[in-house]
Amino acid sequence: MKQPKTSHETDRANALRALRNAIVEGATWRYEQLVSLAVKAGVTDKEIDDVAHQALAALLEAAEQPLTFRELSASGCSAHFRH
Q1: Domain ranges for the chain
Q2: Which of 54, 61, 21 is nearest to 37 (CA)?
Q3: Is the confidence at residue 7, as pLDDT, over 90?
Q4: Quick check: 43 and 16 in contact, CB under 8 A?
């Protein structure tokens, strides 16, 4: 049977998830605060580096995916295309 996570483990996981989300969102103004919270939760520098690397890899992977005309239209892009 799976052991329930302790509060400490949950805090660490939440801190790493928040940092990863901030990196993916590009919320640079939150990085310092989130790294401080992660360190206080017991996250190591290596774990922070790994999460940052994973987030950047996800951004680059998503950037390589081409958008269709429909996706561009749905994104609210204000550019007008001539046919």
Answers
A1: 7-74
A2: 21
A3: no
A4: yes
Q: Tell me the two tokens of residue 1.
A: 């049977």
Q: What is 37-80 written as a DSSP string? A: HHHHTT--HHHHHHHHHHHHHHHHHHHTSPPPHHHHHHTT----
Q: Using a cut of 0.90, tell me whether the model's pTM lies above it.
A: no
pLDDT of 41 reads 95
Residue of 46, 49, 40, 32 whose CA lies nearest to 14: 40
What is the pLDDT at residue 71? 73
Find the helix or strand (DSSP H, E) in which 14 lies.
Answer: helix 7-25
Residue 39 pLDDT > 90, yes or no?
yes
User: Which 3 state secondary structure label does DSSP give 1?
Assistant: coil
Residue 20 is classified by DSSP as H
Model confidence at 13: pLDDT above 70: yes
Tokens representing 75 are 């994104």
